[in-house]
Amino acid sequence: MNVQTRHSLLSPFRVRAFLMQWPADLLTNVGVEMEILILGWYVLVETKSVLLLTVFGALRYLGTLIAPLFGMAGDKFGHRNVLCAMRGTYALLATCMTVLAFAGLLGTIPIFITATLAGLVRPSDLAMRNALIAVIMPGDQLMGGMGVARTTADFSRIFGPLMGAALMATTGIGTSYLVIAACYLSGVTLTGMGGAGLAHRRAAGVGNASFVQEVVEGVGFVWRTPCAHAGMWLAVLVNATVLPLTGGLMPYIARDVYHLDRIGLGVLAASFSVGSLLGSIGVSLFGQAMPAARTMLLSTLIWSVMVLLFVLMPNPYSGGLMLVASGIGQSFCMVPLAVMLLRVSGEQYRGRVMGVRMFAIYGLPMGLLLAGVLIEHVGFAAMAVGYCVFAFAATLSILGWWRRAVWPLDAQGNAAR
Q: pLDDT (tens digit, 9 = 90+) per residue, 238-255?
């Protein structure tokens, strides 16, 4: 790696707030990924029901309905303050689960209750994180900073599932949850150490209207901004179709399609994350030269094709290679999408638009629940192929409908600032 590449990758860390935020996000994400894998496997083994597995996965996104309220809270009270409170909630819930596990009281009912409570808060974590990065990073470094920031999710999806699977297999669920709680506690501590300034105060232009009025203003901004409108529909699409196949359904694919154990599940999940990490590094290095809207659309088309190839692979080895390619496509879609929304929203609407963006995640639990029903009626292969084909066709439709706002290089969605 040459000097220029190292400089490009490390330049965001010259901002002190980013230097604290990166490990805070990494530790929080590692805890999340460990928890998802451990509890997903526990639910599948204990209940022997893929439908309940998809219900568990859907509960994690329950809070998407109230995500704009968290975004508004960030604009009013400071994004870092709200993020600290949210991550403190994760740590508290994980501590309770640790106590239950060591006491021998853990079961499906406490797991579903915890998933419901965490699901009310956790979907807004990404919105707060993105809005916070937009505050602390200079505008001309936003794409690179977002790419580097996304590596925290990628690293955690590589090491989190592997750590979770290894701990679960060797030490049991109690010790595993002790590590998860430690990750959350460390994450909230580092988040609070990010420094004072803009990230702690009310955003400029935010008034004293009620939360509901302010959220309605954010929704209205998205509705009347064509490139933001297109980006929201694209986010709904990928969450409802391709993401369930590389996320919530992975325990089912590992056990019932490829006949793997917990370690095999961890390796499959890590394969997707390796690709996502490579994609995030690519965006951080070359993202400043990429038109955001055009890049996200082309990458979505490629991403849906790669996921289709993944579900058609005959063994976990070739499937793992397709997961790596799918992860690359995901990063080149999701990072430019977030950057485009942050650029067009400006400081006044930043938190609210990111909160509205979280509405799109609601497509993921809906897609998971529908997938669980379809698998039982038509089988996994037919369901997966249908999801991928629909994603490809719908992306082309979005491109056609909002072409003037997302395709020309001088369009608002492709603006560099």
A: 999 999 898 878 888 888
